Amino acid sequence: MSPESIKAAKVKRTQEWWKNRQKLAAKSDPDPTATGGWDLLQGSPEWTRANEIWQQKHARELEQEYEKAVIVYACVKRICIAAQEAPLRYGEKTDDGWENLDGDALQSLLSSPNSQMSDAEFEWHLISHLLLTGETYIWKWRDGLNQVAEMWPIPTSWVTKVLDQAGRLIGFSVWQGADRQKFVAKKDMIRIILPQPASMTSGLGPLQAAGRDVQTDEARGDYIVEMLENARTPGMILTQPAGWSPEQKDEIRAMIMNGLGRGRRGRPLFMEGDGAKLEQTAPLKDLDWPGMSALSETRICAAFGVPPIIIGLRSGLESATYSNFAQAMIAFMQGTMVPLWNWLDNGLTRGLLRDEGVMDERKQIYHDTSGVRALQDDEDKISDRAIKMFAAGLITRNRARELSGEEKLDGPKGDVLVMPMNQMEIPADGKIENEVPPKDTGAAAQLEQGS
Fold it and tell me: Where are the alpha helices (DSSP H) in 119-210?
């Protein structure tokens, strides 16, 4: 969509929202003098339902949530930063693991995807689009030999799917600025989606799944700001049966305002006369709303797969310790990042290898997780296990030193097994070869010895 069409659609939605707002105000806020104000409490049979409030946002609006909703920003940022710990590699799978094909042109492309982005920036765009809209697109630019020379991550809002009469995907229309669109063939675009069960052509991302909770959190913030800005709640109520003269009010008001400042909040209210009384509602009494905020925070984090503790939310810090944080990081890397890396690996392998004619199943694009600290066993646990295995005679001394990160010993001292002196080997069938019969100490033996 062009910026003009996006702006026109936004204006139209704003107008519709304002009309609905006026309609809601007309039927939910009747004149109190008509029924003594009871309609304000009882409501109306035509009250707006919750399903009429939730918004179905387009790709551009979903992308803008990254800059508007702090929890969404924190979750996406945390995932994008964590993704940098496992760089993209092109390799061949062997029985012993992966053999990197560092000299190949494809590895150079993964390290420098285009002339304007580093590999880290490229993957940040790639992942953020996927998380926000459920879809991510990579435009493959080719050289004179028809080889992929550059890769460009395209915002989802710039891409329109082109279908044939049978509803099959045949290509994409990419916005080029103003009213210009460019058709991109299916073979020149890598498309990775988080599947939407109700659609064969659209994706469903974490932000879309958590849309209602994001809107609830935004509405809570808007309410607090509006009340702080517009509420005329007095900070002090002064009562005097005899009444206040204008001079007294000015003097007291000046004295109080010098201490409070000249804002609209916290101004003094003067009451006078016998029985003067003021009853006020307290719209900001529960300003913090810990229960509501914690509910929306944790539900948004659940959709993104990010533990609240690792992005500093209060719902995760209330009972936080360093051990809790470490465990949460391990759970995050194993439960969220590893599946995400695998999902991206499959999409990139399909788009850069299979679609380009490389049908060798052993060759793949993968994220190298060997340097991801949270996925490695604890060094102390490894050393402790190696010592116990060596003491039990299961591994050699050199193998135990290798597991513990120590250098191997030269000569026969390293390649030996040890066995505790208080243990003896017994075959699994219970039979012992060359078994010595027990010594007979009976009467017959004594007689034999005596003779």
Answer: 119-133, 206-209
**Cβ–Cβ < 8 Å for 158, 184:** no
Q: Which of 216, 190, 181, 241 is closest to 294 using CA atoms?
A: 216
**C-alpha dist (Å) from residue 191 to 69, 246, 284, 336, 360:** 26, 73, 47, 21, 21
Report the alpha-carbon angle 146-148-153, nearest 5.
Answer: 135
CA 422/CA 198 separation, integer angstroms: 68
In angstroms, the Cα distances linking 30 to 36, 37, 40, 44, 48 are 10, 8, 7, 9, 15
Going by their DSSP bridges, the two strands 88-94 and 148-154 should be labelled as unpaired
Q: Are 107 and 362 in contact (CB under 8 A)?
A: no
With H, G, I as helix, E, B as strand and everything else as coil, classify residue 20.
Answer: helix
Q: Which residues contact 85 (CB under 8 A, 6 or more apart)?
A: 369, 371, 372, 373
- Rounded to an integer, what distance in angstroms lies between the CA atom of residue 277 and that of residue 241? 11
What is the DSSP code string of 35-56?
HTTHHHHH--TTPPPGGGT---
The domain segmentation of the chain, as residue ranges, is 1-42, 234-279, 377-423
Distance CA 67, CA 340 (A): 23
pLDDT tens series, the chain, 451 aa: 565 666 676 667 666 766 665 555 554 444 545 555 555 455 555 555 666 677 788 899 999 999 988 999 999 999 999 999 999 999 998 887 788 887 789 999 999 999 999 999 999 999 999 999 999 999 999 999 999 999 999 999 999 999 888 888 899 999 998 889 999 999 999 999 999 998 887 899 999 999 888 888 888 778 777 776 776 666 667 777 777 788 877 877 777 666 655 554 556 666 676 666 655 555 555 555 566 677 788 899 999 999 998 888 876 666 666 568 888 899 999 999 999 999 999 999 999 999 999 999 999 999 999 888 888 776 667 778 888 888 888 888 888 888 777 888 887 778 888 877 776 666 666 665 665 555 555 555 554 555 4
- In 10 A of CB 225, how many CB atoms? 10
> What is the distance between the alpha carbons of residues 365 and 336, in angstroms, rounded to a whole number?
19
What's the rounded Cα separation, in Å, for the pair 399 and 417? 10
